[in-house]
Design a protein that fits this description.
Helix content is 83%, strand content 0%. The chain is mostly helical.
């Protein structure tokens, strides 16, 4: 995963825990999840628009 080994991932997790604290991490992850969900929704909407316009062009 991105050239990171287990020790590096553990170190990053410890740094995040120290910087944000244990109580803030669930809030951060929830916000990240919502952001990813919105991004996926936007990309699927764009794909639908593209497919719809292609279908209209084929019919015309």
């Amino acid at each position: 995963m991105f050239g990171l080994g287990t020790p590096e991932i553990i170190l990053i997790a410890i740094v995040i825990l120290v910087l944000f604290g244990a109580k803030k991490i669930p809030e951060l992850m929830q916000g990240l999840g919502k952001g990813v969900k919105e991004f996926k929704k936007a990309t699927s909407d764009i794909e639908k628009d593209i497919n719809t316009s292609e279908d209209k062009e084929k019919k015309a």
